[in-house]
Amino acid sequence: MLSCGLSAQTVKLGVTGGLLNANANTDFSVVGVTIEELDDVNNYGFYLGVVGDVGISDYFRVQAELNYGNAADLAFFYFPIQAKYEVFPRLYAIAGPQISFSSNAKGIKEVLGDIADVAGGSGNLDSVLRTTGIDFCLGAGFEITRSISAQIRYSFELTNRYDGPLKDSLKVRTSTLSIGAVYFL
55: how many CB neighbours lie within 10 A of its CB? Predict the structure, then answer.
C-alpha cells in the first residue's frame, strides 16, 4: 500500500518570479493600545525563486519555494511552505507559513533612527533588529497551462522584528503582496 501511495504522488520543479510590494509597519503602543504608527516603508520591486510542488491527492498539493525579493530599501530571502487546494478546475487557493530573512532593512532603520534611545544609546540599529521573521501567507493561483500558473499572494509577519529596550511597546512587522508566475519544468 505504501508503494502505491508513493507512486501516486507527482513532483514538479520550476521557477517563479514577478512583482512585489513590500511594507514595513512600525507601531508604538502603551499597554497594548497603539498610540502612533510611524512612517511606514512601502516599496515596489521584484521577486525570483525556485519552486517544488508535491501532489498528495487529486485536489491537494504542497508547494515549497525559496525566493529572493528586492523592493528598494527592503531586500530579503523567504521560504514559504504552502498547502495548495484546487477549488475549481485549474483554480487553487494557497496558504501556509513562511520564514523570511532580511538582507537589507535600510528603510526600517531610518524610521527607527528617528526615535531617541531606541538602540539603547549605542546607535547601532543592527543590534536591535531581528533578521529572521515568521510570516503567514495566503493567496490564489490559476493554471494557465500544465506548465504555467499565475499567482497572487499576501504575507504578513507574525513576529516582531524589533528586539530593543522598547520591545514591549514597539512593533516592527513586514508584509508583502506578490503577483507573478510559476513555470514548471
Answer: 15
Q: Which of 140, 146, 9, 150 is nearest to 82 (CA)?
A: 140
- In sequence order, the β-bridge partners of residue 176 are 22, 155
Report if residue 3 sits inside a domain.
no
Question: Which amino acid is residue 108, in one-letter code?
Answer: I
Q: How many residues does the chain have?
A: 185
* CB proximity list for 109: less than 8 A, separation 6 or greater: 125, 126, 129
Q: How many domains does the chain have?
A: 1
Condensed to tens digits (0 to 9), the pLDDT of residues 40-95 reads: 778 899 999 999 999 999 899 999 999 999 998 788 899 999 999 999 999 999 99
- pLDDT surpassing 90 at residue 161: no
Q: Which residues contact 125 (CB under 8 A, 6 or more apart)?
A: 109, 112, 113, 118, 119
Query: The domain containing residue 79 runs over which residues?
Result: 9-184
User: How confident is the model at residue 129, as a pLDDT?
Assistant: 73
DSSP state of 126: G
Query: What CATH number is given to the structural domain containing 69?
Result: 2.40.160
Query: Across all residues in the chain, what is the average pLDDT?
Result: 83
Residues 6+ positions from 36 with CB-CB distance below 8 Å: 27, 28
